[in-house]
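Below is how a single chain appears once it has passed through the pipeline. First comes the sequence as given, then the structure the pipeline wrote out for it. We keep one example in the README because the format questions we get most often are answered faster by looking than by reading.
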Amino acid sequence: MSTTAAIPRIAFLLGLAVFALAACNPFAPEIDEGDAGSVPIVTDHTTIDGVFQNFRYAYSFQDTTIYGELLHPEFTFTYTDYDKSIDVSWGRDEEMSITSRLFDNAQSFNLVWNNIVSQAGDTLQVNVTRSFNLTVTFSANDIVRVDGRVNLDLVRPRATDPWRILNWRDESNF
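Resulting structure:
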């Protein structure tokens, strides 16, 4: 093959390579969809499933902004202190502070939502009880596993608005 005959071929191959690279911006790579079952994605929480998906995302990525969007301004968290045999509650501000410190001090979280145990309500107010498994890794030697249930009251002003968690009763035995 002569040199003059090879030039069009090389030019074609270079043009093809430039075209292929032009479609690939190394500064804006594609989102890796991965395994849809294991990669949490922020979603619209106008659905009950969207609330749980965003909750999982917030914990997986230790994102207090997404977590805070799920909480109603009048939010209340309640758990039972089994040692003292009393219920302990706090509001949204304390919840955000506690969650922020938890996110700052842990290396990773793995939250798995299991089946919905019960769900009752209408388009503006619903109570959902759902089981979960949570693994919190503080260090290689400090891993906490919690299996339990959340009992959530979700509310919204209109059926097209996002759900917000008004009350969260932790039904874990932790």
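The longest strand covers residues 125-139.

See the next section for the split statistics.
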